[in-house]
Amino acid sequence: MNLRISTHLESIVTFYVEPFESREFANLIPNFLQSHSERVFGNIREIITLHRELAFTAVPINEDSPTELAEKLIHVKPRLLRTYLKYFQNAGTSATYYRLLQRDGRFLKSCQSNASHGLSLDSFLLKPIQRLTKYQLLLEELLKNCEETQKSVVRAAVVATRDILTEINVSMHSLRIRGFDGNLLEFKRLCLQTECVVRVFSPKSLRISKVHKRMLLLFERGIMFCKEKQNKNNLLEPFLEHRNHTLVTYMGFEECSVLAAEYFDIWDVRQRTRYSVHVEDDSIRCKVIQKLSELTVLRKGDFARRDASVGPPVPRAVRPKMKRACSEAALHFPTFAV
């Protein structure tokens, strides 16, 4: 088995970036887009250079290479993260410029014709993140098959790759979510996103106070409801305006809502209101419920670990005696001036 850098990354430069920067194709590009290569393609050259330096090109996997590859990836993790974050933080600008090129059409048609394949530019621009996920899958496969003495290093590389993907995932969505003042890293990776209808109600009276159409964002460690809004500039992608959220630590969940069987209930245990949520697509609804059930189990595990770390509760009758004992013991120890 060989590890090779995908030629797709180089193809972006060969068939799109270089023609975009060439005077030969200037007549196919609107004047106001010329000389803005980095805004369309980001730091794609930097990503390609980094992958070359990882020396993943045609390296045979022998007895020593699993740890060699893992150690290299762990070593470049900070730089890999910085490089990819820079790429994806430009994603919104890149998408805007791509739509402008698409509107004119001439440059993209010419490039795609020269490339002799069916992939569009926006498909090409997804290749860098696909490269990272392939590294993760490869390392996970190596972890299953490597020697026991090699597992700790390979496992650390798997964790490093997951950390990078999580931070990139969070960074991408933080650029689109507005009005959220918390730390999105606490929510971990985004697992699922779908439209839904939310009924806000009182658990005591079951009275519905509000009904909203929302975007449900289900993360590994929490859930968030946002309102999708259009940018004033129609060329820009819609953004998500944060409305409410809850982390797994404070999450309550019931698979069947008290209001309707096809809804499920979600709430923050610190608040008085609850949310009855309806997802129209049955398959997506099942996935959401399954993940929320897992989060509920995770929440119970968090509380169990917290209680175990604190220790068993002290009976009330014993507490005064302990307090007096501590006070009496303190009398037998000298005090020291600091």
TrEMBL record:
- What Gene Ontology terms describe what this protein does at the molecular function level? guanyl-nucleotide exchange factor activity
Which domain of life, per UniProt?
A: Eukaryota
Is this entry keyworded NADP?
A: no
**Alphabetical list of Pfam families matching this protein:** RhoGEF (PF00621), SOS1_NGEF_PH (PF22697)
Which InterPro entries does the entry mention? DBL_dom_sf, DH_dom, PH-like_dom_sf, RhoGEF_Guanine_NuclExch_SF, SOS1_NGEF_PH
* Keyword annotations of the record: Guanine-nucleotide releasing factor
Q: Which residues form the DH domain?
A: 1-171
Q: Does the keyword Protease apply?
A: no
Q: Name one GO cellular component term.
A: cytoplasm
Protein known as: DH domain-containing protein
